[in-house]
Amino acid sequence: MLIDIYRSASHGDKYLAVPANSDVTKVSLPAGTDPDYHQVRPFPRQVDFNPGENRIAVDSDQVIADIQDHGYALFGATITFKIG
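Above: the chain sequence. Below: its structure as tokens.
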């Protein structure tokens, strides 16, 4: 499934994913959704997500299921590196 990913403008660890080439301004988030998801900026576009695919910090199966069920997926991803 090709998706477009958007990053929260106020919280860099929160993401919104929609089917590729969707008009993100037409995504209707339910009342009570974390306000961090209401203002987003483009992140990678046309990303190919496949069921069972291993990705760092993202559950591909859950993203695909949420997009199929709701038309979008909300997720958080944080990666921390420590050297030494």
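The mean pLDDT is 93.
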